[in-house]
Design brief:
The chain has 74 residues and is mostly beta strands. The protein has strands at residues 3-7, 20-31, 37-44, 60-67. The chain has a 4-stranded antiparallel sheet with strand order 1-2-3-4, with no helix packed on it. It is elongated, with a radius of gyration of 18 Å.
Amino acid sequence: NTLAVTTFNIDNNGSKVKGMDVRPLVGLGYTIPNTGLDINARYYIGTSDLSSSFKSKMNSFEVSLAWLFNASRF
């Protein structure tokens, strides 16, 4: 399990906007054998309201695709 920390600054007409959100994440990954192809998916869960003037949490979904290779061959 991993924990991501995101920081941001927004000015919303004087309302108090939080500058930091701690977001735990859930993810899965799989490397296809004998190919070096790696596929990952992650969902970041927002835990804090972004502002005192509106109730909103920042959640995000991420998908990645990678090719793994043996660097000792070069």
